[in-house]
Structure formats: C-alpha cells, structure tokens
Amino acid sequence: MSHLQENSRWPRVSKFTLSACAAAVAELVTFPLDLTKTRLQIQGEGRSGKNGGSVQTQKYRGMLSTAAGIVREEGPLKLWQGVTPAIYRHIVYSGGRMLAYEQMRESVLGKSEDGIFPVWKAVIASMISGALGQFIASPTDLVKVQMQMEGRRRLEGKPPRVRGVYHAFTKIVAQGGIRGLWAGWVPNVQRAALVNLGDLMTYDTVKHFLLRNTSIPDNSICHGLSSICSGLVAATMGTPADVVKTRVMNQPRDSNGRGLLYRNSTDCLVQSVRREGFFSLYKGFLPTWFRMAPWSLTFWLTFEQLRRAMGISSF
C-alpha cells in the first residue's frame, strides 16, 4: 500500500522524464538497426515497370549487407542519421505512453481485488497509450524517416530533400501546411498501438507472472526476461504496420502535400502485397526484432534502475 501511496504522490512530470531519459538511452544504442530496417523496408517500393518507367534496383539483400553498405558508401556516422528527431519522438512518445499506461493501470481501469492487472485491461491500456503518444509524436517520426533516407538519395544522384531537422519541419509545413506534419499518421498510430500492445502489455504481464509464480525476485534478471519477450511480440505484431507507415511517410508529395505513390495506408498495403507478395510486409523483420530486443532490454533495465534510484517503486 505504501508503494501505491508513494506513486500517487510522485509528480507525473518526474515519471514522464524518467521514461523519456530511458528511451533516449535505448534509442542512441540501437538506432543503427532502425536505419537498417528503414532502408530494407523502402527497398523495392518503386518497382512498377509501367510505361517504361525507371525501376529501382535492389541494392541490399539483408540486414548485414545493408549496414555494411551504409558504412562503406556513406560512412559509419551515417548509421545515426536521423537520430535527433528520433530522440525528440521518444521524449514525447515514450514519456507519454508510459505515463498514460501507468495512470490507466493504477487509477482509470484499476487492478483487480487480488492486485493483478487483468490481461484484457492491459490490452486496452497499452493500445490507447501507444496510439495517443504516437499521434502527438507523429511529426517527429515523419522527419526521422525522411532524414534516414537522405544518404541513399545522394548515392542515387537525387537532390537532397532536407538539410536538417529544422529544415525538414519547415519544408513539410511549406508543402502541406500543419496537416502535412501528420502525413501517414494513420499507419503510424496503428503501428504504435500494436507495438505498444506487444511491448507494454507483454512486459507488464510477463514480469508480474514471473514474480507471482516463480522464485525470481524483482531484479534485473526478471526485467531482462520480460523485456526479451516483449521485444519479440512487439516486432511480430508491429512489422507490417511499420512497413506501411515507412512507405507512406517516405513517398514523394505534390505541391498540395498529397502522396504520389499511395493514396492512403490501405492503398499502400494492397499495392505492396500485389506487387511484392505478402511477405513484403515483413521486410526488415529481423532488424526490427534485433533492434526491438536490445531496445526493449536497454529501455526497461534503464527505466527500472532510474525508478529505483529516484525512490519510485518498480513499474
């Protein structure tokens, strides 16, 4: 009971800050895998062969080939291209989703009489918190995706679209207005809801299952095992929506901010499956998983340790 009273007294802004700090650390550590994943997901989207149009060659064949190609052709620091808006995104997204989930678990939805947070409530809380956090953070995700693709555009002889974070924001607003900052927000929010379902719900459920049914104490071993499970489930559920989101957000746009390749996320989904097959929706799954596993591990270990250091009970 003392822990609940302590948590209710602890300022929400402090919990938001701890979540954002843990997410920033995880993002810096694993960002090269996110860049690799994005390059793999974009690959092949321009191949239509209609009217003798240009066909994009398949430059990379896998995660290691993609990463090695980026280092060889663009330089090792390019593996972190786009990390600034990615950190901005996680300050908003992870800070918001963690705070929202914990508030719903402790107050809005509430635990059962035996102190267990039912799985069905965890599903609702995780999807709502993920969707809300991602909708607010969607502009930073759009900038991140576009900046990640600049290295490849230069190698293909195309002019750069953006020169930095500020230029990317101003250009998007100039082309599509404020609404342009939320281009691709539907698949973005869909993906976030699914990933958050896999991440938050799985971590919370597995962790408390281990604490109730095994002799494992509430320490780094418990946190690590729970985070590994959450990373796998999140990658499996979120990859198709991530592919659609990345393609919609990266496509060229006309003067009114409308996409030139896809009308919406459904159109992108249909075109991708029709031209490249169902498993095109799982392009980049391995780097997504290989990134989510260490990201989840780094985030949850950092987050739990920060809470302990600040005198807050375990999540």
TrEMBL record:
InterPro entries registered for this protein in UniProt: MCP_dom_sf (IPR023395), MCP_transmembrane (IPR018108), Mito_Metabolite_Transporter (IPR050391)
Pfam family, one: Mito_carr
Keyword Glycoprotein: no
Catalytic activity: chloride(in) = chloride(out)
Any one GO biological process: response to cold
Major location (coarse): mitochondrion
First and last residues of every Solcar repeat: 14-107, 117-209, 218-309
Family according to the record: Belongs to the mitochondrial carrier (TC 2.A.29) family.
Primary role: Facilitates proton transport across the inner mitochondrial membrane and may dissipate excessive proton gradient associated with oxidative and metabolic stress at neuronal synapses. Regulates glutamate-induced proton conductance in astrocytes, shifting the energy metabolism toward aerobic glycolysis and lactate transfer to neurons for ATP synthesis. Can transport chloride ions with lower efficiency. The transport mechanism remains to be elucidated.
Name of the molecule in the record: Mitochondrial uncoupling protein 4
Species annotation: Danio rerio
